[in-house]
């Protein structure tokens, strides 16, 4: 049985020693709502701090690789691929999609969610001087492939 509690009810990291190594992949997303002028500044490349999408992409990738340092009891993983995509969504939002892959004994959902979250926070950090009212929302798992629990996908995806 997989649990974060030991026989005395104390938190511990799940032992995945007996689990088979399988190909695993997870995709997560986040949305950052902002003023239309802020999005226009980002998309046009006119932000005084530089390419917001490039910096957020790198931050997301770095965060995925450091997830076990950020989330207690999360396994350190040797990711084989991390992809963070950013795009304008309508006139007032940025959609972030993060996909993580590996061949291992445990899933990569937390890595994908962390990548999307940190990319969103990076956008906020870079743009807060011009738009403090930005809102980070809809951080969620979109799809998970592999492992014992099989395939998961958000309805309508």
UniProtKB/TrEMBL annotation:
It comes from the Bacteria. One of its GO terms (biological process) is Mo-molybdopterin cofactor biosynthetic process. It catalyses: (8S)-3',8-cyclo-7,8-dihydroguanosine 5'-triphosphate = cyclic pyranopterin phosphate + diphosphate. The keyword Lyase applies. Residues 13-147 form the Molybdopterin cofactor biosynthesis C (MoaC) domain. Pathway: Cofactor biosynthesis; molybdopterin biosynthesis. One of its GO terms (molecular function) is cyclic pyranopterin monophosphate synthase activity. HAMAP family: MoaC_B. Homohexamer; trimer of dimers. This is Cyclic pyranopterin monophosphate synthase. The gene is moaC.
